[in-house]
Amino acid sequence: MNTIVTLIANPDKGTLDDDAVAAVAALLPETEIVWLAEAHVADIRSPVPLADADRTALAANIAGMFEETPVDAAIQVIAPDARRKKILIADMDSTMIQQECVDELADEAGVGDYVASITARAMNGEIGFEGALRERVGLLKDLPVSVVDHVIATRIKLMPGGRELVATMKANGAWCALVSGGFVDFTSRIAEQIGFQENRANRLAQADGKLTGEVVEPILGRQAKADALMEISGRLGLEPADAIAVGDGANDLSMLGLAGTGVALHAKPAVAAQADIRIDHNDLTALLYIQGYRRDEFAR
Questions:
Q1: Alpha helices in the chain (DSSP H)
Q2: Choice among 43, 72, 91, 242 that is catalytic
Q3: Catalytic residue at 93?
Q4: pLDDT in tens, 105-149
Q5: Active site residue 91
């Protein structure tokens, strides 16, 4: 097992210089510096595996060094040949897309602010996901089913870097699954746009061309996401350790913890505090750098 620190500067907001990288390398023994993207992403590799307490202290030291610079630092204690994962399992809302679909539907129903407040509390783990989803969907009753097409066409934007992430992992033999606590009406379309090979989500009940205000049970929530990772990895003859998972909400925590590499992307505070790796400043291509891909290896 090696210790690998990946420093990722947001290319739109700054660069990494040799002195900054060397200062971080000085915190570890026997280091090798490998640039994955010139002036923006560097691996610092040490053959000495850090204990959890030392890893926590290192993360605090690095955070202090980059307090005023938009740099993400991913610290892994991992076998070098285990970095490139064979499964990507990803959340959708606020992860692969920039919006929360239920909030956008609620805005069409005239209750957007109220629903968004519930979403924020649920994603931060302050209230139960399943009950919060039922309450929010209840407020969508009698919306025409066609509103989904309208929201996708006018409100939904893909998260930058998503297509490169999926294309690169697929080009290297990985299986990519979109697993969402949102709705299959959206995941089926978003999965196709980005290139996912599989998608799972909840179903909005419909009748006579309108939403009934109900979710088809059982609800895909926190445990169901972890179960999906177990089922997918088993079906492929792999282990959860062979997966990289990404999400932003409390209902992603079990999935992130189960995967070999779990990444909290622009996550809610309670989620960021519990995640081993957090990406606050960069887009989804950070997941490729975390796996050791160089910029010139990215597919599109």
A1: 18-25, 52-65, 101-108, 112-123, 129-138, 147-154, 162-171, 184-194, 222-235, 253-258, 269-274, 286-290
A2: 91
A3: yes
A4: 999 999 999 999 999 999 989 999 999 999 999 999 999 999 999
A5: yes
